[in-house]
Every structure is written in C-alpha cells, then in structure tokens.
Amino acid sequence: MSDRSRFFQESAWSAGVVGLGYVGLPLAIAAADKGLGVVGFDVSPDVIADLNSGVSHVDDVSDTDVTSALDKGVVFTDDPAQLSSADAIFICVPSPLGRNREPDLTHIESAARTIADIARAGQLIVLESTTYPGTTEDYLVPAVEKAGLTLDDDVWVAYSSERLSPGGDLGTMEIPKVVGGVTPDSGTVAAAAYRRLVTAVHLVSSARVAEMSKLLENTYRAVNIGLVNEVAQLSHELDIDVWEVIDAAATKPFGFQAFYPGPGVGGHCIPLDPQYLAWKARGANFATRFIEIAEEINSHMPKYVVTRVSELLNKSGRAIRGSRILAVGLAYKADVSDDRESASLEVARMLRDRGGQVAVLDRLITPERIEAYGFDLEAGDGELAHYDLAVILTDHTDLPYELIAESSTYLFDTRGVYRRLGLAADNLETL
User: Fold this and answer.
1) Which of 64, 37, 34, 33 lies closest to 51, judged by CA?
2) How many angstroms separate the CA atoms of 137 and 183, rounded?
3) What letter does residue 274 receive in the DSSP assignment?
4) What's the pLDDT score for residue 379?
5) Contact 197, 9 (CB under 8 A)
6) Which of 6, 159, 310, 387 is most buried as measured by Cβ atoms within 10 A of its Cβ?
7) Is the pLDDT of residue 246 over 80?
8) Given CA atoms 52, 55, 58, 60 in this order, what sign does their dihedral have?
9) CA quadruple 412, 415, 419, 422: dihedral sign
10) Distance between CA 51 and CA 54 in Å, rounded?
C-alpha cells in the first residue's frame, strides 16, 4: 500500500465537493457523517445562502441533514479558493446535453479551470459527473499539470460515477462505487478514499472503464425500457394485457429481468446518458443501433399516450379539445418531486396544447410550479372534480386512486398501478 493510500484509509482527511446538487450535496453530508472535514462549493450564491441557513434544495437531503452537517463543521461556500484546503476534491457538476443532443461539458470545463487554479500537492481529484470515456484524462490531467503538479507524484486523478436512486430504499453511500484511476496508482488511492465513504468499492483498471460502465448501466435500462414500451404497443394491437405478460415472464428465475412500460423515460440519467455513448461512438465511426432504436421508441411514447387518450375520448364522441382531463403526476418517477426530462410533463403539455382543459394532481410538486407550467391545480383533498378522463402518468404512492377512478368517465393507467394495488375499476384501460 502506498503512503497516500494509507493516508486516505487511516487519517482524518478532508473532502472538497464541487457542485452541491443532487449528487454533490448527499456526498458532502455523507462525508461529514463519516467524521471528515468538508468544504462544499457551488457557483450559486443562492444555493450557498440557503444551505448556510439550514435549507436543503435536494429531495433526498432534509433540512435537518443540512443543519446537522453545519453543526459538524461543514463549510458551504461560493469561494473556490477554500477548496485548496481539502485533501480530496470530488467534482459533481451537471453534464447535460446540448441543443443537438451532443454532450455539454461546460460545467466540467469550468470545474477543471477551478482545479487548475486551486490544486495543490497531496490532493486526490475525482470526477463524478456522467460523461463519455476519456473525459477525466482529457480535462482533469491537463488541469493539474497547469497547476504545476505531477500525476502520481504530487496529485492523483480518478473517476467514479455517481449512483443515485431517487426515492429508493438505498442511500447514496450504500450503493457500491465503481472507481477507476487515470493510472493504476491513482485508482488505488481513490479506492482507499472511497472506502471511508461507502459500503463497497469496485476498483477497475482505468478511468475510461469506469466512465464506460456508467454509460452501460443507464443504456442497459434505456434499451430495455424501449423494448418493453414496444411490446406494450404490440400487446395493445393484439388485445393482450402487457402487464400480465411481464408478470408471467418474470416468474423465470434466470435470464429475465422485469422492466415496465410507461409514458416515456425521464430524469437526469436515462434520457441523457445513452446519448453520450452514441456521440462518442459517432466519433469512432461506429453505429449504435440499439441506442438509436431505444431512443426513437422512448421519445415517441408521450405521443403514443396522447393518441390512446384521444381514442378513449372518442368512444363517447369527445375530442381532446374541450375535454376536462386530469393528469396524475408530473414528476419523472414515483415518489420524487423531480420533473427534469419528465415524460409525464411532456404528455400533460401535449394534451393542453391540443386544447384539453388539463388539471394536475401531484402532491410532491409545488402548486406554484404546477401553475407556472400553465395547468390547473387539483388538490385532491377528500374529493375531486369530475373529469372526462384521468391519465395516470406518475404512480406516486400517496394518491387517492379509488377516488380518481370514481371521479372520471375514463381512466387510462400508463403505469399499471391499479393492477399492482389490486384495485378494480370498470372504466379502466391500461397501456
């Protein structure tokens, strides 16, 4: 074991976190809980002001968590110079797609410039943002060299992607971390640091392998969701219950993992990460056909849902235009308040744009946000107004599903929640 690995394994080292969003803030909180010193940096003065007042802006981090972290000495700052005191710096900045679905590395580039300004000898620098293979080597190694530091002598550089399950049972630090260094020595040092933070570390041979593994994880999900969404459409044409089909297939104890259809894919990972891989593949003159087909199917699902809504309304001689429609859920997945890249939100917008009088029932997204999107608000407290059709877009746990069925002429369940809960409804149709 190298001296630096031993330091991170045995000493009371300090962590610097760049970016205090859905990834960085939980990491900062977890590091403080492990007894490490923490400096959390974000470019937003408003975010820093809220955190220093004990107010969290992240679903999986409570105000109490933030207050506890402050009591433990965590420093939240918008001054990057304070990061120089940290022994390990974890970069957790956004990595969105650009207008033409190409990687937007603006935030990573900015973080690299910060590293070039503040890096010092003895530090470990780790990128956690999802990105294409080669990013850590291409951006962070030049940054530390610009700071006058030598890789593996003065500083160590690695990659370990964030793994989050918003609204899930596993905490961030309970999910195994894949770690890869730009060099083997950097990987070993980074693995030693992460072993102080998480329950399990899987060390791979390089940062490029670690970067690729993250893209594979979410591309796997996107492709399989695309497959089951296509099967759902075919099952409807053949008058087969796709939910019963999936339940039957899932009884096989090997070789099958159940994925479920829905109005599309959303969130900050599944719609975006495969496009990083596809973009990198195009640079290598390689066609990613599975990714492209899955993207085509999944991106078409909101329009398919709207078509099915139209067909249901037509049964009573109604069109979408002028119909009262209840959109149940705007978040991208159940039991979170995150509507980034949400297919549910896209369906609601399409129904509104086609002339539907759309009200939204989602208790996790603020009324102000729902109304800012241009929808009516349905509180659903004890009773509901009558709707020509209710469409279940996000299957939050705490919703009055029986009341929703009773208050609608037609009920279209895109998530299979009525089947899952064992609720019967004469007006029910599923995806």
Assistant:
1) 64
2) 10
3) H
4) 82
5) no
6) 159
7) yes
8) positive
9) negative
10) 5
* Amino acid present at 179: V
Paired sense of beta strands 37-41 and 14-18, if any: parallel
Specify the residue for token string 């591309």.
219
Separation of alpha carbons 431 and 105, rounded Å: 37
Q: Dihedrals φ, ψ of 310, to 5°?
A: -60, -40
* 259 backbone φψ class: left, alpha, beta (φ>0; ψ -120 to 50): beta
CA nearest 145: which of 127, 133, 157, 128? 157
φ/ψ region of 18 (left if φ > 0, alpha if ψ in -120 to 50, else beta) reads: beta
Mean pLDDT (whole number) for 121-148: 97
Q: Which two tokens stand for residue 96?
A: 């969105």
Both tokens of residue 261?
């259809």
What is the three-state SS of 97-148?
ECCCCCECCHHHHHHHHHHHHHCCCCCEEEECCCCCCCHHHHHHHHHHHHCC
What would the pLDDT profile of 20-61 be if each residue is shown by its tens digit?
998 999 999 999 999 999 999 999 999 999 999 999 999 889
Whether pLDDT at 383 is above 80: yes
Q: What would the mean pLDDT of 286-305 be, rounded to a whole number?
A: 95
Residue among 384, 272, 369 at smallest CA distance from 330: 369
- Number of Cβ within 10 Å of residue 382's Cβ equals 7
CB–CB of 375/327 below 8 Å? yes
Q: Give 41's strand partners.
A: 18, 77
Distance CA 150, CA 263 (A): 50
Longest dimension (CA), the chain: 76
The predicted pLDDT at position 99 comes to 79
Q: Write the single-letter amino acid at 344.
A: S
Average pLDDT over the chain reads: 94
Catalytic residue numbers read: 269
List C-alpha distances in Å: 355 to 319, 323, 367.
Answer: 9, 8, 22
In this predicted structure, the answer to whether residue 169 has a pLDDT above a threshold of 70 is no
265: number of Cβ within 10 Å: 27
Residue 86 gets which letter from DSSP?
A: -
**Helix runs in 354-391, H state only:** 367-372
Task: Report pLDDT for 202.
Answer: 97
Q: Which of 393, 389, 400, 395 is nearest to 428 (CA)?
A: 389
pLDDT in tens, 191-238: 999 999 999 999 999 999 999 999 999 999 999 999 999 999 999 999
DSSP states along 321-350: TT-EEEEE--SSSTT----TT-HHHHHHHH
Residue 122 structure tokens: 């003895």
